[in-house]
Specification:
The chain has a domain of about 90 residues. Helices cover about 65% and strands about 0% of the residues. It starts with a helix and ends with a helix. About 0% of the residues are buried. This is SMK killer toxin resistance protein.
């Protein structure tokens, strides 16, 4: 009995639900229901019936919540174990270092080959319906002159 109370005291400071805490909760609610039933028969007051219904609902809700927490913890533990299995390589399997060491060597590329390949435009094949972009000069057809800028600056200095 002393170990039960010790475990109960420690379970208060442990996050989540523990079996000891659930046992203590269920015993407490059973005692409360018994007391409310005795008071209902002793006084025939509807208040004790209503209190008993409320207490039973709270008792059920607490146990439901504890079950849901256990289910979620089991799912999380299962996912964690699966992740550990996926991360750890099996004996005889390839690892990144083995596959990198077995890869064929790359052919060195000279700088002019790279720039020449990058600077060549893709030529459209005949029959492709691609449009050429217009140059900047063709976009509006209007070109400003220095004299227009002089007119703007003269108008601003007269004020």
């Amino acid at each position: 009995m002393a170990t039960f109370f010790e475990e109960l005291w420690n379970s208060i400071f442990t996050p989540g639900t523990t079996p000891t805490l659930l046992v203590a909760t269920n015993v407490s609610f059973a005692a409360l229901q018994f007391l409310l039933l005795v008071l209902l028969f002793a006084t025939y007051s509807i208040h004790f019936l209503i209190l008993s219904i409320l207490s039973a609902g709270l008792w059920y809700a607490i146990n439901w919540f504890a079950r849901e927490l256990q289910i979620e913890n089991a799912k999380a533990a299962g996912k964690e174990q699966k992740a550990k299995r996926d991360k750890s390589p099996e004996p005889g399997s390839d690892t990144e270092t083995e596959t990198a060491a077995q890869a064929p060597p790359c052919k060195p590329v000279v700088g002019s080959e790279v720039t020449g390949a990058l600077l060549q435009p893709d030529l459209a094949k005949p029959g492709d319906d691609l449009r050429r972009r217009r140059s900047l000069g063709d976009s509006s057809g209007y070109v400003s002159t220095d004299s227009e800028w002089e007119k703007v600056s003269e108008g601003g200095s007269k004020k």
